[in-house]
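U., I forgot to send this yesterday:
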Amino acid sequence: MITSKTFADIVKEHRENEFSATILSAVVEKPTGYGRIIRNASGDVTAIVEEKDSSSEEKLINEINTGTYVFEGEGLFDSLKKIGNQNAQGEYYLPDLVKLYRNSGKKLGAMKLKNYLESHGVNSPEDLHILSSMIKGEAVHP
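Result:
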């Protein structure tokens, strides 16, 4: 559950830095199942690699893709047409735009969530309890 403050913050980050795309990431203790944020030595995002396509080294990365992005509208739909499905799942991955943008020289940004629980999915009764507690403002310990 991304808060309105976080959404406003990522849009502000995107606009102030004139990024073509901005990714919302989170650092988590157990990243299994999530796409990993790949950064170069300078700390710039170079790609997002989905769990099923990641190497054993990439699986050790604990910065994950939350699936929340801000894109510049100009050129987005043309870029989407360039995404292929040559991956472990045979799917068209929106995160592939990151590598495509990077390779074409577009400016990318990434903002790390201060509270990774905002990106927590709801796939079980325990997950629902965590989200409900967050909404009520209670202390949450997943």
